Amino acid sequence: MIVKCVIMGVCGSGKTTIGKAIADHFGACFIDGDDLHPRANIIKMRTGIPLNDEDRAPWLVRVNDVFFSFENRQQSGVVVCSALKRKYRDMLREGNHGLIFVHLFGSKELIKERLSRRQGHFMKEDMLNSQFDALEFPDSENDVINIDISGSPKEIISQAISQIEKKVAHDE
């Protein structure tokens, strides 16, 4: 079973933790999409300036290319990428058959509390509002699995893996 997943959501939703567990389960390559940002984006975010669509475009091209590479090698892959807007998700879909988006969502209060405990990440808590403002909730996209993050990490991972397996089996 080849699995190609984008783990999406606002900062602090647990994308990296959940993404690594999903990648481990499926024997997939794991890539943190933050590592694919151009230097200018990282500098901008580190100084507390939210990215705009123009900033995100080269990053999304890089993420799209990673999935093309997985497809070309017939390899499973999991990439963390916020993919907040439908047009961003559409950019990732372009030329990449069979992508599954796992959208991790929760209340702003829950995410804010998680971010307050986080260290060593360039996303600042005050940028959270810009992420929630940009988020276009993917409730009508067939390739998106929406998972509420109010449960434990173990529950979230189990639910995500179960739904991914169903979706891949259905699409084969």
Automatic annotation (TrEMBL):
GO cellular component: cytoplasm
Record carries keyword DNA-binding: no
Annotated metabolic or biological route of this protein: Carbohydrate acid metabolism
Superkingdom to which the source organism belongs: Bacteria
EC number(s) on file: 2.7.1.12
A biological process from GO: D-gluconate metabolic process
Gene Ontology terms, MF aspect: ATP binding; gluconokinase activity
Protein family membership: Belongs to the gluconokinase GntK/GntV family.
Protein name per its UniProtKB record: Gluconokinase
Organism: Succinivibrio dextrinosolvens
